[in-house]
């Protein structure tokens, strides 16, 4: 054991000597390893951070949550021209389904609409994401409040001019003062702020609750009507726990088909999207991003491996006389083999460490600059280190084997 520790120490000394005495040559050889480790770990860290953010954003929702609307969350066999003719889901369909399935699920009605400018006295916030939704939304998506409350059933049904705003909007309009009870203007009318949400951070697809305003959906229906082609309606359904989701989907689809008067043989002119299917689609996309990162970084790692092999062959050539002396003094073949193999691994670890440090610096900078938490996980650090060791093993095995097989007499003579 002591012999191998000395061997590693000597290999480390030779690796450091190669770095110090042949700076440019060693730098160029290690550059491929550094770029390769940096590329793969940077991609994996970015994808892991995105995956973590998506799971955090979706954690407030049950994976069995259903979104009933005219669009599909994933690929569809129905031609696009036919999908474009599908009608919006309607408020009366929501009330019908809600009463018909009251014992099986919670339902909310939401309208995706345009952005608005919110004003308070001489301050304003532009391009605010407006979320018109019915009062049941609070029971489907667990919103957290820093102050105030969500609007109730009476306010929702009457389309009352009340609003729940995100943390960023509250800070922009009211600074440090309490926003609850104050009136803001939008749609040319005054709305009373009844709640402020806790800070959420960047949203999964850009928008966040921090920069959103929730208002009763019936206000939008009264203000714009139900026939606007520019808006997209959705019925959000949260089935009760323990319910057979497939059977419930079939029942939900049949009730809406009957309500719309669709005949046998007619295709559904709506889509029943389950959040679990959407998360599976996202997992597939993330897996493809990871694969792309591995393919791109693989070429850099290949180049880095050739660079390390080259520097090890040069190292064997320069130390041929020393190898002959070591063997003449009784050094075994495996001692020489491990000496050069450890040296190759240590050189790769130097290159990998630089790559990991660069990724770590970038994650810190990006987390501070962007409203998104980039994380370099311990798993990715271990992966990067393991890759460096594997590259060292592969790139150093042939030069190390060549050195171990040298004839001591010929090796000493070549150095004279």
From TrEMBL:
Sorted UniProt keywords: Cell membrane, Membrane, Transmembrane, Transmembrane helix
Keyword Transmembrane helix: yes
Ranges where the ABC3 transporter permease C-terminal domain occurs: 295-408
Coiled coil: none
InterPro entries from the UniProt entry: ABC3_permease_C, MacB_PCD, Macrolide_Exporter_MacB
Domain MacB-like periplasmic core per the UniProt entry, residue ranges: 26-252
Domain of life the protein comes from: Bacteria
Chief location: membrane
Gene Ontology MF, one: transmembrane transporter activity
Protein's UniProt name: ABC transporter permease
